[in-house]
Amino acid sequence: MPEIAPSSIIDPKARIADDVVIGPFCFIGPNVSVGPGCIIENNVTIVGNTTLGGQNHIFPMSVIGTTGEGDEEQGVCVIGNANSIREHVTIYAGNPDRPTTIGRDNLIMIACQIGEEAQVGDHGIFANCTYLGPRSVIEDYVRISAFSFVDQSITVGAYSFTAGYTHVDTDAPPFAMLQGSPYRIRGANSHNLKACGFGEEDIRSIKRAFRDLYNGTSELKMDVLGKMKSDKSLNPYVHSLVKALAAEGKK
Prior knowledge:
This protein has 251 residues and is of the alpha/beta class. It has helices at 190-195, 200-214, 222-229, 236-249; strands at 3-4, 9-10, 15-16, 21-22, 27-28, 33-34, 39-40, 45-46, 49-52, 57-58, 63-66, 76-79, 84-85, 90-92, 100-102, 107-108, 113-114, 119-120, 125-126, 131-132, 137-138, 143-144, 149-150, 155-156, 161-162, 167-168, 176-180, 183-188.
């Protein structure tokens, strides 16, 4: 049986795995499913049609599955496995056609907000007070520093890094270091790439591509991008970078 503090209110229709631990003064609504091994600390609210996978740790005062209109019955939120959701995080639900989704093994730190219909990948780190706008797309292994702001419907590419207080107002490519408001690309996120197991030759190729594409400025060199698009010998990671930048240019 789950270990549930007497002061918590768990709707009888909620589906709670047998080994879940729920601390005091929590509220869990009728359409919530909590997977095995989850720890839900005190004063957590989980509502809407929210599904939590296994081994998630939810810290005090977090709110998951709410909607801006307050109509939790229609909100849908799907969270994968092994996420750490720290204090005062708010995750807004999407709708049945586009639920808010969070992958696995993410660290979402204090007072972050994730907007409705946002799509968050795997292995991300989101520092204190990060804001992810509605319908934003955050790909795998992204690192976002404190007080950063991602506008609605913006994509942040995989393995990228934003410095503190960065405003991401247009789609950001993978592998990049972003800084400023509005942001500038400062080069390749080589530290994260190395930590994630990229080889030295791949990292050198990505760094060289950023130098060629931006030449030390914030302006993408479209002529260089065009030449890279037709180069059949590109490093596979550089090819994905070029593909992402070309797709952004068509929006």
